[in-house]
Design brief:
This protein has 393 residues and is mainly beta. It is built from 1 helix and 33 strands.
């Protein structure tokens, strides 16, 4: 573990929100590099994980290397993309909540995002988007290239994608940097793609890295979790839940959170105030540097009724904050179609007062029975979250 203090950073700009000043602005920013050491899970590790009463966490599959995103086919088979550059298939043939077989179905360097819709598979690497048919045996037909020229990844090469209610394919393209003027217009955006011919357009911009996004099951509104800028301090930039609408600008890299100015990056040909007027604020904010990854709305019936239509979000965990944040799965309650408040659903991966961790949540997948899978790319595990109501005698 290494910890650095960053302080007395001098910004030489003339404007801050709510006040006008000429000359030099001194702003002290305190931040850390702090990485909890990985404490490898032992045989009793599951007992250390915290879930609400009635919920159960178990191991669906282990020794998987670095599992990331997941998708489900109509036969109940689970496809998992891995950092190793492949897709593995997991089967739970006896329906006991634990995978009993696995095989490799595709090798493709840089593969990350995956979605299955109407027996068609969609995949994305850093620069490419593919689709393929699902064969009866669960393998894929030849990959058909929809896009081969997405911007280079830079700092954020992990693309994700999903088919929307309109039948279009939505692809998240993260920024190439922490905060900068991008050289391509598609960096730091969500793009919309025609699945027939690969034609595309920018849906929303000013999104540093919105890996997790989904549509509310009742309202059809699109929401996404965006990563905040690093090095603005331990408590800034907070992670954002945005209501994503076509044509909107969500502020990165100049405006963040509820209209704050990123003084290290000045908009061209306008002031921060002028730029803020044309951006859209987030609908909820979360602890800075938690690193939100996947996000899905719960549509099943296994969990208690109040969890229906809540958003589930994995927080991969911080590396640049003290005390560390994230390392958990949260749920966001919605009221009258809009987000209301959030709470922990799976936690306890941090131990020793934050000095150690034994799990870094990544991908989410709801299974046919209503249970939810959650991948951990630090320890090669996929967990299964289920609900077993207590029976009173």
């Amino acid at each position: 573990m290494v910890r650095f203090l960053i302080g007395c950073i001098l910004f030489c700009f003339a404007e801050m929100k709510g006040q006008q000043k000429e000359g030099i602005i001194d702003q002290e920013i305190v931040g850390h590099i702090y990485k909890p050491k990985n404490a490898k899970p032992d045989t009793s590790f599951v007992k250390k994980i915290k879930v609400p009463t009635g919920f159960k966490i178990s191991t669906y599959a282990e020794n998987l290397g670095k599992p990331r995103m997941m998708a489900l086919n109509s036969s109940g088979e689970v496809y998992v993309t891995r950092r190793e550059g492949d897709i593995i298939r997991l089967k739970d043939a006896d329906n006991d909540g634990k995978a009993d077989s696995r095989d490799t179905v595709l090798i493709k360097e840089g593969i990350h995002g995956i979605d299955i819709f109407q027996d068609t598979l969609y995949l994305v690497t850093v620069n490419e988007v593919f689709k393929a048919g699902l064969e009866k045996d669960g393998t894929f037909s030849k990959l058909d290239t929809l896009i081969d020229d997405l911007p280079d990844g830079g700092q954020h090469p992990n693309r994700t994608l999903a088919i929307g209610p309109d039948g279009m394919l939505y692809v998240s393209v993260g920024s190439t940097c922490n905060a900068c003027d991008e050289t391509t217009i598609e960096s730091a955006t969500l793009i919309k793609v025609n699945t027939m011919n690969g034609s595309r357009a920018i849906f929303a911009k000013g999104l540093r890295n919105t890996i997790g996004f989904d549509w509310h099951p009742e309202t059809g509104i699109l929401y996404g979790m965006d990563h905040g800028i690093d090095w603005l301090g331990d408590n800034d930039q907070k992670e954002e839940l945005n209501q994503l609408e076509e044509g909107k600008d969500y502020g990165w890299p100049y405006i963040y959170a509820d209209g704050k100015y990123n003084l290290a990056d000045e908009p061209k040909q306008m002031s921060w105030d002028e730029y803020a007027q044309k951006t859209t604020d987030p609908v909820l904010l979360f602890t800075a540097h938690s690193s939100p990854l996947d996000m899905i709305f719960y549509r099943g019936t296994m969990f208690p009724e109040e969890f229906r239509n809540r958003a589930l979000v994995t927080f991969h965990g911080s590396w640049n904050r003290y005390p560390p944040s994230g390392y958990k799965l949260i749920n966001i309650e919605f009221d009258n179609g809009g987000p209301k408040e959030a709470g922990d659903l799976v936690s306890g991966f941090l131990s020793d007062d934050g000095k150690s961790q034994f799990g870094r949540p990544v991908g989410l997948l709801e299974l046919g029975d209503g249970s939810v899978l959650m991948s951990d790319d630090e320890n090669g595990i996929i967990y299964r979250l289920s609900y077993e109501p207590l029976i009173k005698n």
